[in-house]
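Dear support,

I submitted the protein below through the web form. The confirmation email said the job was done, but the results page showed an empty box. After a refresh the structure appeared. I'm attaching both so you can tell me whether what I see now is the final result or a partial one.
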Amino acid sequence: MWEILFYESIRGECPFRAFLDSSDAKVQAKFIKLLDLLEEHGPDLKRPYADLLRDGIRELRVRYGTKRYRALYFFVIDDRIVISHAIVKKTERVPPGEIERALRSREDFRQRQGARERGHEI
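What the results page shows now:
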């Protein structure tokens, strides 16, 4: 089993939790179901549930009505998955700026995790 974490900024903001809290209950339920599948299958979870975007950033894929939702995530050592944030997808591809945002979250997570492992406050 994989451990799923939600990315939190240094200020304690959790973009994915905020997205879920503002979403329709059915969208929340679909994401929770996918998180369970991701926890069980990790990198083996494929389309239509998940896909690789680029540079190690992946997406969880939810469709509800005519809207498409994506939660961007990445893997870290020790069988952990970090959910960066989620979006309502309005174009054919996930916007590059959203992938860049997930890459920044991954870098921040790794730096602060490394500081914690070295015994520094974060």
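Response: this is the final, complete result; the empty box was a page-load delay. The domain at 3-117 is CATH 3.30.2310.20 (YaeB-like fold).
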